Amino acid sequence: MNLIIFGPPGAGKGTQADKIVTEFNLNKISTGDLLRDEISKNTTLGKEIKKIIDKGSFVTDETINNLIKKIFSNNENHNRLIFDGYPRNLNQTKNLDHLLKKNKQSLTCVLSLNVPEDVVVKRILGRQVCTKCSLIFNKFFNPSNKKNHNCGEQFLTTRSDDKEEVIIKRYKTYIIETLPILNFYKNLDLLYEIDGIKDIDSIYKEIRQILHSLDG
Ligand SMILES: [Zn+2]
Question: Ligand 1 mean position to 166 CA, how many Å?
Fold first, then answer.
């Protein structure tokens, strides 16, 4: 099984990906991790990447494509991939398609978590952590009260440094950049859109139903 998971920041994509990895025994591939990994291994490519990032420039598609190529050359990853945050654009999408075919593999499906802008904003801005017991609450969706929390309001801290306009801008950028990729997979009949408003367990239930139905 090979998958891709998409979702705007604040959609809970990472949490869902981790659950899928555990249940279906997959290897999660995120380009951020790949880049960090390559830099820490101090390879020739890693040194080049570090130079680019230190300059404040973006890593090119060619570099990303080379990293993904390496992933396919590792037998450990054969039919066990879940991509998170990749592909980022149509060029990378076509490269992935090419690599899959070349390695006689295919995508089982592409999952897209759909969450409206206002919900993403409230999820990120409303997030609160208790400094005493580490429980996580949300001002809007799951507020701390006397029944679910003993420490008291004074220990709650807001984790997010983000301003509302920054969150909205990031969301809009995600939608604009991801749409052509989702359309590409829709045309291949691989796209499954998931209602990401529901709670973590309900979303995962829907995902695992899809995956089990495809994993015949
Ligand atoms: Zn507490």
Answer: 29
